[in-house]
Amino acid sequence: MKRHLVIATAAAAALVAGGTVTAVAVSGDGAPAGRSDAPTRQADGPGRPGTEDAREAAAAKVTAPQAAAAALKAVPGTVTGLDLDRDRPGLVWDADVLGKDGTWHELTLDAGDARVLNQHVEQGDDDHARERAALKSARTDAAGAARKAAAAHGTVTSVELDGDHRARAVWEVETVTKDGKEHTLLVDPNSGKLTAAPAHDADDDDNDGADD
């Protein structure tokens, strides 16, 4: 009843003003019953795990071993970590290097041509005692760990020396295959042995695919 009264009142007002009117039917709860011209927002569907890493891996022209070599050319020493990153403009490799001078260096390299975009010395207390000890006896470096992991499970997107893994240091390597599946693998710095990370250790490995 109220809906008809609204339409009739609007039509009468339009006739008095000498204009026209477009009647819009209103449902009992106040919402338009017909089509609305207002834009509607579709709910985002669930994203496929690993697709962003897969896109980054496909876009990077510089591999992890190449990024390690470029970092060591800028700062002689030992690479302790590599991470493919798009958090800043462009795609880059973030590299951590223990320099021959005993200081820790952080570098940013272009993932397209390996140019050093930024570098600085890490400030603050040195809490890398276990990593230092592991690197002294390591026979497999970051580049070697990356090559070994890539041969088994796709493109490397991250390499890190984990000094707290079950009371021993290991290279933790993350890879992604072209179908977007992520893998987390462990490489022993001394023996070079490659193993799959336990499921509870692979925090970011949604696919748990390092077992195959």
What is the number of strand segments? 8
Beta-strand percentage range:
25-35%
Q: What's the order of the H and E elements?
A: HHHEEEEHHEEEE
Structural class: alpha+beta
Helix content: 25-40%
Overall average residue pLDDT: 75
Distance between the termini: 68 Å
Instruction: Name the quaternary structure.
Output: single chain
**Going across the major beta sheet, what is the strand order?**
4-3-2-1-5-6-7-8
The largest sheet, given as strand count, sense and whether it forms a barrel, is: 8 strands, antiparallel
What's the shape?
A: globular
> Runs with pLDDT <50, length 5+?
1-49, 204-212
Number of helices: 5
Q: How much is the radius of gyration in Å?
A: 29 Å
Features:
alpha+beta, 5 helices, eight-stranded antiparallel β-sheet, 212 residues, disordered C terminus
